[in-house]
Amino acid sequence: SLTINGGGDVTLADGNTYSGMTSVNDGRLLAAVDNSFSPFSALHIDCCGLVRLNNTSQTVASLEGIGTLR
Description:
It contains no helices and six strands. The chain has strands spanning 2-4, 9-12, 22-31, 42-52, 62-65, 68-69. Strands 1, 2, 3, 4, 5 and 6 form a six-stranded parallel beta sheet that branches.
C-alpha cells in the first residue's frame, strides 16, 4: 500500500504492481509514466489530496474520495 500524508509531491516514475490501498490524504501524487499506479490497488483521494495523471494511462482497482483527479 501507499499513503501520502504530507503536503509535498510524490512522483511514481516506474510501473508498479503493489497491492493494498493507495491513499492521498494531503499532498500530490503524480504519474510520470503509463501504469505507474498499481492496477491491483484501490485509489482513495481525500479532500486535501490531488492526483495528477499528466497525460499518462493508468488503471486502478477502484477510485473513491472527494479530492481532485486531473
